[in-house]
Amino acid sequence: MSIKSELKRKALHLTGLLVPLVYVLFGQDVTLVFIGVSFALFVALEPFRVIEEWRDSIKRRLGIYAPPEVMERIERLETHINDITREHERNRVAAHIYFATASFAVVYFFPKNVAIGSIALATLGDALAAIVGKTFGRHRFSNGKSVEGSLAYFLTGLAILTPLVGLPLAFVGSFAGTIAEFYNLPPDDNFSNQLAVAVAIYLASLL
Description:
This protein is mostly helical. Helices cover 81% and strands 0% of the residues. It has 10 helices and no strands. It has helices at 3-13, 18-26, 28-50, 52-65, 68-84, 95-109, 112-136, 147-165, 167-183, 189-205.
């Protein structure tokens, strides 16, 4: 994926920062409702993303009523979506569904500061790791990740987590998130990243 497409993809991913923002402004209950509604919407729309025949059928029917300029905008939007979709995601569950699932679990089960930090780091850290890795990555591993990208994630984690949980726990959480991001832990890194950070901080806080 080109750096231009990567930037567009990560700009979309950064909308995940709405979750910690809603948590800060409105509290846990409203945040859980926000995530739940988003999840339901994502799931309802998922078949139209994956099944091309459904998309084509809807576009044909819409074309009867919609003016040409509207159809042209829809085609452009579809092109942009395809441009930022990784090959392995085209016929599997979308990243935003994994993200919403993990966010709900993190907000529900973990303390507020841990949840906010974990989701913010998984969102912003992943974006910076990808952008820095693609732009400045010179020392690469066999899986395509780079030292520079991983370091960007780790330092982002320290910056986000330290004010929330203190430096020792921030170090633990950032390291756990870096490992999860590096290995793309299953089922999807958008799921495992948040949970890795939250679980690591929570367990370390018990010691």
